[in-house]
Amino acid sequence: EAAWTAARKPPSKLRREKAFNDEKDAMRRELAVKTIRELRGQLAEHADTAAKL
Asked: Which superkingdom does the taxonomy of this entry point to (predicted)?
């Protein structure tokens, strides 16, 4: 029974690594979204400037 439990849940090191990687992915995704928003904003500004010329 103990062997089955051990096989069922990964060792804490793997769990920690997975949590760390999930967190890193989330941060990377947030950064990408922020970057895209900023670039879109800059693009809109350039379009406005070009329209005024």
From this structure: Eukaryota
User: What is each CA distance from 19 to 26, 37, 53, in whole angstroms?
Assistant: 11, 27, 51
Tell me the two tokens of residue 3. Answer: 């062997």
Q: Give the DSSP per-residue string, 20-37.
A: HHHHHHHHHHHHHHHHHH
Place of tokens 């793997």: 14
Closest CA to 47 of 35, 39, 37, 34: 39
- The answer to whether the predicted template modeling score (pTM) of the entire model surpasses 0.85 is no
